Amino acid sequence: MLAVTVAFGFVVALLAPWCVRHVGTVWGPRLLAAYPLSVFFLTLATDYEPARVQSAFDWVPRFGLRWSVLVDGWSILFAALISGIGALVVLYGAAYLRHHEHLGRFYLYLIGFMAAMLGVVLASNLLLLFVCWELTSIFSYLLIGFDHEDAKSRKSALQALLTTGVGGLALVVAFVLLRAEFGTWELGEILGRPFEWSNPGLELGTIVLLLAAAFTKSAQFPFHFWLPSAMAAPTPVSAYLHSATMVKAGVFLLARFHPLFHEHWLWQPALLVGGGATMFVGAALALPQRDLKLLLAYSTVSALGTLVFLLGVGNSEAMAACVVFLVAHALYKGGLFFFAGIVDHETGTRDIEELGGLARQWPALATVASVLALSMAGVMPLFGFVAKELAYEAVFHATLPVALAWLVVCSGLQVAVAGFAVGRPLFSRPRATLAIHHAPEWELVVGPALLAGLSVLIGLWPAEGFSHLLAAAATNIAGQSTELKLGVWHGWTPVLALSFGTVLLGVVVFALRPLWCGMAERATGWKFVGPASLYEASVAGLARLAAWQTRTLQTGKLRQYQVLVLSTAVASVLLALALTEGDLLRFGWKAFSPTEGAVIVAMLAGMAITIGTSSRLTAIAGLGVTGYAVGIFFLMFGAPDLAMTQFAIETLTVVLFVLVLYRLPRFESRSTAATRVRDFALATAVGASVGILVLALLADPTPSALAPYFLAQSEPAAHGRNVVNVILVDFRSLDTLGEITVLGLAAVGVGTLMAMWGKYR
Description:
Structural class: mainly alpha
Helix content: over 70%
Distance between the termini: 72 Å
Strand order of the largest sheet: 1-2
Shape: elongated
Number of helices: 32
Radius of gyration: 34 Å
Number of domains: 4
């Protein structure tokens, strides 16, 4: 059922513009919200224990591509987050973009992305997972660049697409290596059995490629730069893609493969170091930001680093903490992005230095935003506090004192960021009078209010079913049974002391904001040596390389193009010979009869006449001799139909050439002797290469099911004994019709040109 639901999402996406256009900009989005809501309730009603694979249908069975889903706690948890928050984003976008002329297009992209993301987290087939992975990159490109008339939006969209696209290439290679090692495309089979890698180098390569794919997708250092740039997207996009869904796809992938690679020497250190670096860089870069969305974006980078960092800790407690923190972050960060959008929508600015005093204008919204910020800061008794406590406990019990200190420092920075994001806009004194047009619509407020309420409710009274789902998800990614006890109070413990110290550190950092802003201004020059500048330099260098290549190769001379293309073909054959150590040359030679030898001599004579003559008519005659010799070969080897076709074509060609070319002047020598020698050598090499390839293919033909099928079905299905004719006019009739159409259009064009030439002569 879930597999069909994911596929149905793409149908809903295609219908979204029609729905908005005909149902209206108010009720159309509300109707579209029914899809994510139905998926949400379906996932909650799905039994995820034991883990199992559901297969809806074979998509491309020849290549092993099946539309199958892996149902377990980890996939169900992600599907619930994607669909639940997605429903809120659909409603939020209706109010935020109600008067936008391309609202229908927006919902096409948004729901298409939602379906693709559901495909990523539910897919059991690796090829299906890759297809959906790439679809999320494409839809995110369209969503980030939704305001396509803005150059910044277009640039940010392209940056996100190129960065995550490189990861997509790494991912498909990793999946191919997994298929080569395990002999299956099914993720459920790969993870469901004990396995020893036959080739350690293959395992290492797969790990590196998976890390590259996940790090680019989840904005891990040094690929973090694309996520803040993506804030050029409308706020509903930021709330959805960059808090709860797309940016967590990399975390999902790493956690999914954690049971397979956790014992490898590279896996956990890479996650620990990469996540730790991202955690600090994101939080540090967030401190001096003035743009509210950029502030939240960098804090999201830090949170993603925390998730990867916990995966790198590696014990079962860290896996449980990762699951809990993932949900907590989705709740408070999605709500805070909603809050940022409301502020921008109603005041026209996101500059926190200009904002202030909004709590007096919107007391209810101020309460909601304060709850979300306190959950982000990890203040008792909110769900964010529970997640932070579990993270501290996991690292504390892993006896990693340096890692624990690092986590505390980064968490303290996040406390300050939460204060900047909500405290300053709501409670500080505004520098200027803000033009607040009206109170936010209910569709703008319902999302953050619901997420804030869940942060309070889960923190105080976590439901048993919810805790069970989180425990099941932690068990799936840990590869062993994991217990999870959610609660606010665990007694007076060292971890509780660390939580109090974190809040105190955050208050100090918050008070020192002028210092961070001054440091950022003095360090402005450092941006020219960061990962973002390296990306810009790479893109600019690629553009310069393309310009040089165009100037060098695209000269407008047909002869140079032919030399380049044919030389590349010959070089490819030589490379294949070198890599196969001459295996292509190991084909059997068959002695030919005197009659066949005579035909070969005639063919060579025709070629020599064509090359050596200075008369066009003589060259045409030489070509005719060669063509008739080929037709005789067809006749000698039992293909009379091909021979008759060849004879007819050669006769017609000779006649047409004689009628057209006899009026032209004699040949003129326009090339040097050296050029002609080069051309002769290249032509000989091309002929030899083609001959080698044909003989190698005939010596070791690839088995095909088509030839026996055509032979068996030619007479009973098409009522014809000439198999070649049956293929042309029955089995491939549309192909033949297309060729006839092309020839007919060419004839019409030639006839038109001739008529015009006669008229204007």
